[in-house]
Amino acid sequence: MSFFIEVLLGGLLSGVMYTMVAIGFVLIYKASGVFNFAQGAMVLFAALTFVSLTERGFAFPLAFIATLAAMLLLALAIERIVLRPLVNAPPLSLFLATLGLAYILEGLAQTLWGTQVHGLDIGVSDAPISAAGVSVSRFDLFAAGTAATLVATLALFFRLTRSGVALRAVADDPLAAIAVGIDLRRLLALVWGVAGVVALVAGLLWGARVGVQFSLSLVVLKALPVLIIGGFSSIPGAIVGGLIVGASEKLAEVYAGPWVNGGIETWFPYFIALAFLLVRPAGLFGERSVQRV
Amino acid sequence: MTTALLDVQNVSLAFDGILALDDVSFRVARGEVCALIGPNGAGKSSMLNVVSGLYTANAGDVLFEGERLTGVGELARRGIARTFQNIALFRGMTVLENVALGTDFRGRASFFEQALRIGRAPREERRMREEAAVVMDLLDIASHRTDVVGRLPYGLQKRVELARALVPRPKMLLLDEPMAGMTVHEKRDMCGYLLGAHEKLGTTVVLIEHDLGVVMDLSDHVIVLDYGKKLADGTPDHVRADPAVIEAYVGSFAT
Fold it and tell me: Are B225 and B120 part of one and the same domain?
């Protein structure tokens, strides 16, 4: 039994990380009705910038603040250069723009900082902590705690503030939102800025796990099943979806894996996502798909 | 008409080569209720959409307080509010949230102030709620303030949309068929609310309406469009007596 709990707990902890990445997608989806293909590139960009700064002698907090500033500037630049000319463009054009943006960011990050693999030590050991016969990695706990704090802060901000209400309004009816004078540009800058912050935190936590390298931009693929299960436009959906994906992939690996010679953790979330697409295509908390103007 | 609030000058609009509006000019004076009427396809909605910047005219100008209007995004800041024929409310949100969003554009508090509830943020949010409360009382929807809009009956939704438009105290209100699909009873109520708001807030109103009885009772000024051209322009009595109008409506005014 304690083994089961251990597996479940490990799964939920990694689920929180998936949730964090998924929230970056959800916010941008709410504001522009588009799946932001560049989210992964932003994770890579942030992690690579941070690591390169620390390797050049910046202290940890200083590098963090500098990278944070870079991500926020990047968000402002994206709004100004990429999104503003595309206001009122069909969602497909916007999606393709984020696809192009992904390549630009990946290229830019590697041009600036090189392509070698960097190790990243954020000073939290991987040693297990044991309590009541269940042991959990200290690093996993720290990562999940950080991610959960960020997710809770964002969820509260967008639940309780005027900007959050405006964001829900834009997601609900973009044309009406513009007609009543909601400042879409400001809102876009905000959600891209937040997506940048999320990318930075995700880049550090994941970078510390797997090393800072190009493949870091692929970790966001884990967010896709989360979004399909939870719904693309729902913050609670991202939270529940992330936990479902994390828990189910670990449990499946341990309990169903041996029957098929293991290795199902990587594809099991997509399997669940496919099932959701068949049964509940809008996800648990998603709204019916609405054509945007 | 010395100082027109809205001055539409020689506006033409074409869709795929078909003229929806053909050289239409008219003026709306400050403080009046002006109705755009005409048969289906006459270009009324197109006109309203040009005025509110949703469509860009192929020719001509739209001046508001003597200055050109350039797009739907600046409407609210210029003091113009509008409603839509098919109700464009935020359906998943409450009545209060919908109405309060009508003044969201006045908010200046930064995201930081909002997140920490410091500086301008609390004051602004309190003011927005108060302004929303005044208008919700005026339109008798205060008792529904926490209801989700999408679940309200149609007539009430129309009133919520009007409230959202009124809450920033616009100089001009553009209403696209505010009484479409309503029962006689609901229409009478809506007329009362509209006139009440017009008198209390002094808002200039430009509306599209099909019900000619309603139009004649409500308006100071009627503009008749037919096949994209302006057919008549004047007081209700003047328009009612115009032979060209009578012909276009095949005697609708006879009764």
Answer: no
